[in-house]
């Protein structure tokens, strides 16, 4: 296992470099506005544009520019997302400062939503699998269909308009000035974003659990467990669910890791100052260092999440061993 | 079973629709104290309260005054944070809001007879906000700001090019001099500025936030409090206005710059908080009423959602939003809300721009014909209707010409809907209409490349323009781009774009120079900005970019002549230039003088429009006593 972990850690670093290189090439090669020209005011002079280009390091050869950004990928104090290179072209605020200041909002959103979608999706999937073709099963599948079909942005606007603006059942969007993330959670300001974000995942997880459990319940060892006289509840939860949930655990780790890289749409619509909102703004402003920083940050979490899930898999499934 | 499910689904859908559509009320919020008409927006003004405001997008350069080139930030500087030698009243043009007023200066500057030397006298007793509350503003502090503006690293993204008319400014910025030769301070309260050439707009430059004073700190630090903050002085900004960032008193400039903690009242991308500046003395300032005690500004969000918050009373104003049509309709038609709808000229113009070196627009008759053919009223309707602005009949906004050309429109048509017959009569005089029937019969009129913005409503406007020009025999090949890319293509003569459909332009300060030179001066042609029409382009430049046309009209002399004027003569000079451009050069089809449309919550009992910045004047806002 030790060698496996070292290999995976090195692979993670390789992934980050590949992601950073591709991101860099996208900004350099695809047609888009010159960042220096975009940053200066509308009425400008050639000297102003050249000053901006020099200030941003854009006057250097491409490989030098990339090398400066690549240095910021090394997870070492003073190097990782260093302020010499990783600062916003639009407002000069260090990217690292923005990401870590916004991280609590994204964590609160992602973790809260993940708890909800697990609490909703898995029980629905179990009920649906155990009572196939019943009203409960059909209702669950309608819910699943709606959940995976309804666009997140549409749901978000609908929730805001209905539950806040019309019915006053929920607080409005955003976090008031001076209110911390924990206080905002306590005030219920994350309930609608959690529900909106969780709905699609819950629907998907319900279908996945249903399918896995139906398949598992047809296995020979389940028939053996029943033949031994175990109660149906014990058969389902002790024997059937454990196997059915193994792939769900994998998906959960990946989904949560992906969300920690930024919940773009939900944060934007609900005006939650998280990493996703920062990423959207940076993309629209063609703010390369910010986009690079967010991309690397997101890639890191996904790669780390994959690693943790694979390790957890070995504990869940005794047949899996890594060397 | 299936029928049961269908009924269930239908009930659920109907329930949602009923909840969403039910009721005419604005939302769950209060009905404000002013809504019944007992006290309208001009009712009793009582100082106090905190404004709750919203910004869709953050400021452009984290409040660094030498970098910020954004009207919303300029509005916040003028109203609240920074005083300058000269400033404005924070009112619309018709109430004197475009006229320069002394602020830190005791009066408008004395100007030498040759127009090259300007002398400012500073008031005594104006002090900085904490932590510099014991420091008086002096003339040297203005010089400090100018020196930082000259630094290309500190002023990147800004507008330092305006200050090149000050003798020695560019040399200092290039590191070729130890100081700006044309600036001197005979004493703490006198600033003398010498120019390279007469420029009547010089006083306006000292109303711009880049010249706001920077306090001294360690005597060895030339830039004072800004020393070491080349990138981020805005987050350590020391105020002189009636407000400051919350937490300013905790700024510690005794530490090395890299160890200082930014002010708490500005969290980039998230929030801005202004509180009263305890050092501010209203007796030294006749421009800013500063009624409220503070301002909370949230950053980010969705435009429609924020305006719902205004309706609900949670937000008093969206500072940079676009009022959604349904909200505008509600405010326009509801008698209890009409007083909270505020529409003023923003001093911006929208236009179509010809490339004078590209056929068929190298022919002035074709350009005039297009001016006559365009359905300007239709263009305005596509942008939202009459509330969005006034039909433009000429180039410069009226406030820059003192309304001298208020009723001037050399291409006026009935109901501003275009006049195809008049357009054809003009086209018939063109060399591209060989048979004189008013329809272009030269291949250069077919599939003319036209560049526009991909965002709404420009594609619809492009379709209308195509429709208007077809009877003249001009067909367009419209290409849509993201906005910045569109402007880049319009600006680059190498792109050889004949027709630019979506540009807009607003003043930087209330002087015609901010239209004339950057839009029609030969020095503003690529790689500078923004003379898309190539007015004044030299034969060499045209040849360099592959044009067959060898000569285009120039107005450089007229710009220089008008720029040398002062007072009323200056307004007439710009008006004369405007008429020359419209009647003889015809580089554009101006179609709309933009309005700024704001809606405020029912808490607001006083609203004013800052004509200088083209945004709301927050220092004039007052909150109803019952809502404080």
Task: Provide the descriptors you would attach to this structure in a database record.
heterodimer; A: 323 residues; mainly alpha; MetI-like fold; 2 domains; 14 helices; 72% helix; globular; B: 628 residues; alpha+beta; 7-stranded mixed sheet; 6-stranded mixed sheet; 23 strands; 16% strand; disordered N terminus
DSSP strand content of chain B:
15-25%
Radius of gyration of chain B: 27 Å
Helix content of chain A: over 70%
What's the domain count of chain A? 2
Range of strand content of chain A: under 5%
What's the oligomerization state? heterodimer
Q: If you had to describe this structure to a student in words, what would you say it looks like?
A:
The complex is a heterodimer of chains A (323) and B (628). Chain A is mostly helical and 323 residues long. Chain A is built from 14 helices and no strands. In chain B, 25% of the residues lie in helices and 16% in strands. Chain B is built from 16 helices and 23 strands. In chain B, strands 13, 14, 15, 16, 17, 18 and 19 form a seven-stranded mixed beta sheet that branches. Chain B starts with a helix and ends in a 5-residue tail after the last strand. At the A-B interface, helix 2, helix 3, helix 5, helix 6 and helix 7 of A face helix 1, strand 11, helix 6 and helix 12 of B.
Q: Summarize this, please?
A:
The complex is a heterodimer of chains A (323) and B (628). By secondary structure, chain A is mostly helical. Chain A contains 14 helices and no strands.
